[in-house]
Amino acid sequence: MEQKTKINAEDGKHDLTITREFDLPVDLLFRAYTEPELVEQWMGTKVLKLESKKHGSYQFETTDPKGNKHGFIGVFHDFIPNQKITRTFEMANTPFGVQLEITEFEKLTGSTSKVNMHVIYESVAQRDEVLKLPFAWGINMAHNRIEELLTTFKK
Amino acid sequence: MLLVASQALTAGAIAANFNTARPTVSKHLQILMECELLKQEQNGREIYYHLNAKNMKAIAEFIEPFRQMWDDRFNKLESIMKEYKKNELH
């Protein structure tokens, strides 16, 4: 089966692209990025602030299974409805630095669209560290699942 | 994972390397199997575990979990917006 979401991250580069086609008209796809209650649902985060406009800022907060809160902050540099969002993204209180995200929205047909994210990091090392995060989370989740399973067995 | 990198091993042989109860090791193996990082191979009465090299390559590049994370998010986005559209029409 063809993978819907594609990542292109070349070795030794400090950027990557994420592309995905949607079975949605472009305006609906764009709305998913601008309305706080929609962002909360698909990003799985709490939206504390979302000023969807040029020079606006945003602030998200995610609570992990252990109850720790993680902040995500950034500023919009460009905001063109149904076409493009350029923003910074930073994980608060982490050494990962800031990244620049250029997200382009493309109409394919009246009912389909495409998103193309270009993410630029401060360095190759920083990009690779961020790429590794979900791998580490996956291991943690597997460990949590093991704990859950074992707790269930003990009952 | 390092243990089975060089050779296929039985669950017992893997467990012997850890100071952990055998059922715990079995659970770990089961989850690694679910993630398709390990493969089982029957050899007589024994079951041997070895690395699923194809998937390990993706993991080694550390890209697949990152891709999967975005794929999950985008799948969610698509289903939420389809529902949103339906409600909007009513």
What can you see in these coordinates?
With 155 residues, chain A is an alpha+beta fold. Chain A is built from three helices and eight strands, in the order ββααββββββα. Chain A has an eight-stranded antiparallel sheet, with helices on one face. Chain B is of the alpha+beta class. Chain B contains five helices and three strands. Chain B starts with a helix and ends with a helix.
Brief characterization of the structure:
The complex is a heterodimer of chains A (155) and B (90). Chain A has 155 residues and is α+β, with helices and mostly antiparallel strands.
Number of strands of chain B: 3
- Strand order within the widest sheet of chain A? 1-2-8-7-6-5-4-3
- Provide the low-confidence segments of chain A as ranges: none
Please give the share of residues in helix of chain A: 25-40%
- Do you know the CATH architecture of the largest domain in chain A? 2-Layer Sandwich
- What kind of oligomer do you see? heterodimer
The biggest sheet of chain A, with number of strands, parallel, antiparallel or mixed sense and barrel status, is: 8 strands, antiparallel
CATH topology of the largest domain in chain B: Arc Repressor Mutant, subunit A
End-to-end Cα distance of chain B, whole Å, is 53 Å
How many distinct domains of chain B?
Answer: 2
User: What structural class should be given to the helix and strand makeup of chain B?
Assistant: alpha+beta
CATH fold label of the largest domain in chain A: Alpha-D-Glucose-1,6-Bisphosphate, Chain A, domain 4
Short key terms for the protein model shown above:
heterodimer; A: 155 residues; alpha+beta; Alpha-D-Glucose-1,6-Bisphosphate, Chain A, domain 4; 2 domains; eight-stranded antiparallel β-sheet; 3 helices; globular; B: 90 residues; Arc Repressor Mutant, subunit A; three-stranded antiparallel β-sheet; elongated
